[in-house]
Amino acid sequence: MLFHKKEKALEGQLAGAKPEKPRKVRWSERREPSEAGLERFQDYLQTYSTNKDHPIKILCSFYKGKQKKLVETGFFLILQRSPIWIIPIATSNIINAATNPDAGSLEIILLNVMVALLFIMQNAGTNYLATVAFASVNRGIEGSLRNAMVRKLQQLSIMFHKEVQSGRLQSKIMRDVENVTELLNQIFRTLFFFVLDISVIIVITLRKSPMVFLFFLVVVPFAVLTMRAFKKPVREKNQEFRSEMENTQGAVAEMLEMIPVARAHGLQEVEISKMNTYLNRIVDRGYNLDLINALFGAVNWVVFQSFQMICLAFTAYLAVKGKISVGEVVLYQTYFTSLVGQISTLINIYPQISKGLESVKSIGDIMGNSHVEENNSIVPLGELKGAVKFVNVDFKYPDSDKNTLSDFTLDVKPGESIALVGESGAGKSTVLNLLIGFIPPVSGKILIDGINMVNLDINEYRHQIAVVPQNTILFSGTILDNIAYGLEHVTEKEVMEVIKDVGLEDMIEKLPDGIYTQLGEHGDKLSGGQRQRISIARALIRKPKIIVFDEATSALDSASEKKVQEATSNMMKNCTTFLVAHRLSTIRNADRIVAMRDGKIVEVGSYDELMEKKGYFYELKALQS
User: Fold this and answer.
1) Could you give the domains of the chain?
2) Residues 6 or more apart in contact with residue 259 via CB below 8 angstroms
3) Which keywords annotate this record (predicted)?
4) By C-alpha distance, which of 80, 320, 97 is closest to 197?
5) pTM for the complete prediction?
6) Is 1 strand, coil or helix?
């Protein structure tokens, strides 16, 4: 399995291209974290995830190094929130002045109106400044989190990616990170306002009327008890819903890949029925989640509205008894409403907080995963010569009781071409995966230019080899993008040379934009043979020292196959070549053919030698005749 990302091959990469005009740098580009910064962020996340710390602790770790911005945000949020505290006081003063008029009542009313208006008008500007400060932090965390996850996924082993559905990983990168971003926003703003409002209300109420303050204290235990009563069912329903969404997203990705197969065999209704099962489960889980959330909110509303009326009755009684003024009835009622609103909001967003915390755990499944591809980088490789030696290599997949390879020993000289043949399951692809470094041997060793492969910088090694997989992997860029993928300096002449080598020049000449023609998703605008030849061209343009062909001509017609064979024959003269081919006639020019059965080497020799021997290879060839 190979991984590719879409890269723009700009005309500036080609010789003679005109330089692009300077463009305005986007906000996201100015704030894009450096590679070193991403690695530190990833290491920090992985440390927390691996230690199984509480999700809240992981969330707090996101803000490391951003304290100054958070203080700036808090300052503007205090100013933004201040009208909520000032307006009730001003209203109380105005009502008291109006109900008990004297010589200074008009001045009191005017002064309080002006102060209230001042605090109201500044709200727009401070709200904007608070959003600017916090958004730069929050969106930066969102970008860093996604970048760290992408980096981690690129580091995880091929075995991990074979076991986990790509749809589930897409959900974690997009949906779970979005949930975490919303969670950070909710926690910071809601909790910050909650603490501010409670603090201000307590100070003012305690100073004016300890009796009313004691009444307010009764509300908090009920709020906590209500939240705790619903905590477990809400968390469980969110877990069920998130898990079902991930499963369904994986199933949708598979369904989209299977559309041509399903259509070819008339199995549309089978796929529809299968997807309906998944979709109905989401409906059921979502319905149950909506019910518990609705009941959660309704109970909170009834409880707090009831207490609000009780508060009004209580303060009105105190006013009648002369304990407080009429204006203070409005003050306390407004503060109580604010207090109730803050507690109610805190409780009502609990389902969102629960969903966000589940997403934190989901992201932790990736960031804390230990199945990382090893890269020791002990011995520098330098320029690869192409000598490969397998020494008593054994390999067994984790879920298997039987060795896929047993005592595999093979010495390949630089520039030699080796063809691996055998029945399905003989271990041919495993040999290639070992050679590429996708999997390590269970025992034995693989020497590259005499250096044990486990001691090499695997990326330095892979930069000097090329792989043509059995399943062609193209992305929806141009033909140039796909051929020159990952190469910084490629001339148009070089691209056209490899296109000619693989027999695509006739097709390119017929296209209006030539090599700049845009391909559809997965290169679906091309035939299977054309896609395969572009994949081969991608390998040839790298001028590798070792090249691996895994059934590379399986999708080609006879004419195209002949052209590709000519190109690969020329390549065999310049690099070490490993081939796996279903059609045994295509490996006639290989220096040596390695016939495999049950993970072991049965025969080794040239095509003519093995045919003359009339052994296992001869039997395989006879079956295809």
Assistant:
1) 35-367 (1.20.1560.10), 388-624 (3.40.50.300)
2) 271
3) ATP-binding, Membrane, Nucleotide-binding, Transmembrane, Transmembrane helix, Transport
4) 80
5) 0.60
6) coil
